[in-house]
Structure formats: C-alpha cells, structure tokens
Amino acid sequence: MSLIKWTPFIDPFEEMDRNFNSMLPASWQNQDSFVPSIDMYEGKEAVIVEAQLAGIDPEQVEISIENDVLCIKGESEKKSEVEDKNYYRKEIRRGSFFRSIQLPTHVLGSEAEAVATDGVLKISIPKAPESKPKQIKIKTVKK
C-alpha cells in the first residue's frame, strides 16, 4: 500500500478524477487530444455509427472502412488562444483524434454514406449480403 500525501487545499473531486484517469489507457490520458464518443446500432439493411464531433469542421474529418473496421480521424483546431487568461478550468480538448471501431458484421464499405448535422456525424454502412452455403452435387463417373 502506498502513502497518499495529505493536501488540504485540493478539491476532493480533482483527486478522484486524477485517480480515475490513472486507470485509463495511456492513449486516453493525453490531454492534448480526445476520442470522440460514438453510438453504433444495426438496422435491417445497414450498420449506423453516430459520432459526436461538435465544433469540428466536417471537411477536416476522414472516414475509411477496411476489413470491416471503421476509422474516423481528424483534427479540432483552436482558432485563437489568449495566453494571459486566468483559467479556472480548461477541459475543452483540442488536437487530432483517431477512432477505430470493429463493425459487428460484414459491410459494403464502398457504399457507405456520411452526413454531419448539428455536431453529430452519422455514418450509414450497408451490410453485405450473407454468403449462403453452396451445395455441390457429386457426379459419378462409371468406368
């Protein structure tokens, strides 16, 4: 068991956040970037992925699908930052992001469509038709 230094002037919630963040994967701990949150669900004919990208120019986002893995990457740029501001909290994350998601079924990536509305990117990826087993008849040859 390690000793915890007593710091009476630190907000107890900040200590809890720090402890929680120490348990996250290293890629999530980087404060200069972020990982967009997603919702993924399956419709009758397509897999739908919605990513929350508020404040990000859709023109700066790249989407690719390869081997049933969806990749979303882009960059959130800070327009201007005033260095002399006296921040009490600075939680808005800026920088590049990358999200890779294994899709739950085989898809037709070349037919995917993406639409950005009110800070939400909605990607619709048609499902590939299921491959049905083919029965092969055996031909008999008489000698």
From TrEMBL:
Q: Which InterPro entries match?
A: A-crystallin/Hsp20_dom, HSP20-like_chaperone, Small_HSP
Highest taxon of the lineage: Bacteria
Q: Which PROSITE patterns match?
A: SHSP
* Residue ranges annotated for the SHSP domain, each copy included: 29-143
Give the matching CDD domains. ACD_sHsps-like
Q: Which family does it belong to?
A: Belongs to the small heat shock protein (HSP20) family.
This protein is called Molecular chaperone
Where does this protein come from, organism-wise?
Candidatus Falkowbacteria bacterium CG10_big_fil_rev_8_21_14_0_10_37_14
